[in-house]
Design brief:
Elements (H helix, E strand, L loop, with lengths): L3 E14 L2 E14 L3 E5 L6 H9 L6 E6 L2 E2 L7 E4 L11 H11 L4 H14 L15 H13 L5 E5 L7 H16 L4 E5 L3 H7 L2 E5 L6 E6 L11 H16 L6
Parallel strand pairs: 3-8, 3-9, 6-7, 7-8
Antiparallel strand pairs: 1-2, 1-4, 4-5, 9-10
Helix pairs in contact: 2-3, 2-4, 3-4, 6-7
The protein binds adenosine-5'-triphosphate and magnesium ion (MG).
Length: 255
């Protein structure tokens, strides 16, 4: 049995700055099932981050709505966690303190905070670095701290905005494999924005391809193949080629 967890209905976002209006998103509707890993791929500046910020409740839609388990989510909540491209960590704090931060703000008692943080730091493989300060870590390790920090609140939904965009190609591939391993142990729903078609095919249950701004859904690509997926596989490369062609038609190259 599948269960619709996130229901996005006719979402539209118009930014108004001074006298200028920018339509970032229009006519955007999508149902997402619990436990799905959805990637959003589309041209630069088309409105991908806007979609995540709307789901996170960080900004309000001009019209339309996002329902999570049937409830409107117009404000940020602990049921949704966000992982940012630029990590958004406290560099001078330890790994432990960074992961504990949200729990601290939520007033979780110290002993429970420690225990929960340790569990997720272990899950992302950073237990040996728990007391290291974040500025001492590599990019891939910092990103794992960001993932642990999102997971520790045990959100139903994790929103990831190009989380591996700042990493070199090799680290990026390792992080993708690690993310899938982490997800095997949780039942979280992931909405993941990426510029990389390769990453999208490697990770997704479904890829949502967007048009250029204002973002609308161009196509939804189902990927039923078992994981781990082989990037050299003929089916993989053929699908990659087809999606890249569609993105090119929207005037972009893979970033
Ligand atoms: N706060 C804002 N005020 C005004 N315009 C904005 C604001 N935030 C985003 N925009 C505009 O809305 C459009 C969509 O922006 P968004 O950041 O959602 O795109 P994106 O697909 O995430 O881009 P990128 O691929 O570069 O990350 C862009 O034209 C952007 O300039
Ligand atoms: Mg963006």
């Amino acid at each position: 049995m599948t269960e619709t967890q996130i229901s996005i209905r006719n979402l539209k976002k118009v930014y108004k700055r001074d006298k200028k209006e920018t339509i970032a998103l229009e006519d955007f509707s999508l149902d997402i099932e619990r436990g799905e890993l959805i990637t959003i791929v589309g041209p630069s500046g088309c409105g991908k981050t806007t979609i995540l910020r709307l789901i996170a409740g960080l900004i309000t839609p001009t019209s339309g709505e996002v329902l999570i388990s049937g409830r409107p989510c117009s404000l940020p909540g602990a049921d949704r966690g966000m992982v940012f491209q630029d990590f958004a960590l406290f560099p001078w704090r330890s790994v432990r303190k960074n992961v504990e931060y949200g729990l601290e703000v939520a007033g979780v008692p110290k002993a429970e905070r420690r225990e929960r943080a340790e569990k997720y730091i272990k899950l992302v493989g950073l237990d040996k670095f728990i007391d290291s300060r974040v500025y001492e870590l590599s990019g891939g390790m910092k990103q794992r701290v960001g993932i642990a920090r999102a997971l520790v609140n045990n959100p139903d939904v994790i929103l990831m905005d190009e989380p591996f965009g700042a990493l070199d190609a090799q680290t990026r591939n390792i992080m993708q494999v690690q993310l899938l391993k982490i997800l095997e142990k949780t039942d979280q729903t992931i909405i993941f924005v990426t510029h990389s078609v390769d990453e999208a095919i490697f990770l997704s249950d479904r890829i949502v391809l967007l048009t250029k701004r204002p973002a609308r859904i161009k196509e939804i690509v189902d990927i039923p193949w078992p994981r781990p997926r082989d990037r050299a596989d003929l089916e993989f490369t053929a699908l990659r080629k087809r999606i890249l062609k569609e993105l090119e038609d929207e005037n972009v190259m893979e970033g």
